[in-house]
Amino acid sequence: MRIGIVGGSGDFGRGLAERLRRVGEEVLLGSRTPHDDLVSNQECAEEAELVFLSVPPGGVEDMCSSLAQNLEGKITVSVASPIVFVEGQPGAAVGELSLAELAQRAAPGARVVAGFHTISAKALARADDPLDEDVLLCGDDEEAKAVVAELAERIVEGRAVDAGRLQVARWVEPITAVLLNVNRGYKANAGVRITGLP
After folding, report:
1. pLDDT in tens, 5-53
2. HEC letters along the chain
3. Please, which pLDDT band fits residue 115 given cuts at 50, 70 and 90?
């Protein structure tokens, strides 16, 4: 499967790309300024079979609107979180809708799944170190969610956990702010594990 990472020039996108390549996937990295190993975001979304949206929170809706035709019918994974910094401390500017829901509204033909919010870019970048954590996934398209879950479980040591419908991303996305504060305080790259599951 060819996987595209829109906005893939940042640390998260490059780290995810390396992890995916190591499990045998073909990866395209998209950027607003294509060069070297980067293609345009439009080409990335057009050529990929599954697309990760690795864009800043403020750009999710506009990016999805501009790529709506390219994302039509494709599994589209929203990884953005509504992070803001107040006096240097991470927090979350939570809106009425999650960023994943805004992505779905802007690209109604896309099969949006929210996930990977609890995996840090620094942890992804350390490609030789295992990711000893789970991935939380939200989505209304059960088949799309299952595909992303299978992919996630090839990247992390833990499991992909179905956290419910897409609207639940309203509460999952801000967990990133919690982890940023934990990781700053403990100088770590902590993730999330869901215990007690069968």
Report:
1. 999 999 999 999 999 999 999 999 999 999 999 999 999 999 999 999 9
2. CEEEEECCCCHHHHHHHHHHHHCCCEEEEEECCCCCCEEEHHHHHHHCCEEEECCCHHHHHHHHHHCHHHHCCCEEEECCCCEEEECCEEEECCCCCCHHHHHHHHCCCCEEEEECCCCCHHHHHCCCCCECCCEEEEECCHHHHHHHHHHHCCCECCCEEECCCHHHHHHHCCHHHHHHHHHHHHCCCCCCCCCCCC
3. very high
pTM of the model: 0.97
Could you give the domains of the chain? 2-186 (3.40.50.720)
The 10s digit of each residue's pLDDT in 49-96 is 999 999 999 999 999 999 999 999 999 999 999 999 999 999 999 999
pLDDT value of residue 165: 98
Rg (C-alpha) for the chain, rounded Å, is 15
What's the rounded Cα separation, in Å, for the pair 165 and 139?
Answer: 5
Distance CA 16, CA 162 (A): 20
- How many whole angstroms separate alpha carbon 4 and alpha carbon 38? 11
pLDDT-derived band at 181, boundaries 50, 70, 90: very high
How far CA 168 is from CA of 39, 91, 190, 191, in Å, comes to: 32, 19, 22, 19
